[in-house]
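Example S7 (structure tokens).
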């Protein structure tokens, strides 16, 4: 991706826009930048012009390059899986091992207990049940499986949690 037209924005900015904005959002950003360029041109040389205006023309070119780059790259199955095999991820990741990476757990009978990393506490209220691979916090009243724990602790959606667990 050769980014020769932009002066204020480089390839990293174009890459960021292409990967973090959807195509409709990129088109809206491009339209807004083009309107800002027209307004800046209309007020050039007047008392309404800023001393150091935002480089809207460069931003518009950066948006255009991001749109072109988005259209030219095809999503791979590794980056955007159509189907997530949840059972395979659950069998590869033990819930006790994953949660113990975020907080210290100690054995309490057949279960494990520890302080919940989701909310701030001094006394253990998190219980991990390895038999059915679930967890529950009696302090914040949250619980679920390994995916819901990663969603809570990493502040992500299900696909993000699956990607994090898939990398482990």
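Recovered sequence:
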């Amino acid at each position: 991706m050769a980014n020769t037209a932009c002066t204020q924005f480089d390839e990293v900015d174009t890459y960021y826009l292409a990967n973090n904005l959807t195509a409709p959002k990129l088109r809206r950003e491009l339209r807004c930048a083009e309107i800002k360029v027209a307004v800046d041109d209309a007020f050039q040389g007047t008392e309404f012009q800023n001393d150091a205006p935002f480089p809207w023309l460069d931003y518009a070119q950066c948006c255009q390059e991001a749109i072109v780059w988005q259209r030219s790259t095809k999503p791979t199955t590794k980056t955007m899986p159509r189907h997530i095999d949840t059972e395979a991820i659950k069998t590869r990741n033990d819930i006790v091992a994953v949660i113990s990476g975020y907080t210290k757990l100690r054995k309490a009978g057949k279960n494990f207990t520890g302080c919940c990393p989701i909310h701030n506490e001094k006394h253990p209220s998190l219980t991990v049940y390895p038999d059915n691979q679930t967890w529950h916090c009696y302090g914040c009243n949250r619980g679920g499986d390994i995916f819901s724990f990663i969603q809570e602790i990493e502040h992500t959606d299900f696909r993000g949690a699956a990607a994090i667990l898939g990398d482990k």
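Notes on this example. The chain is about 45% helix and 10% strand.
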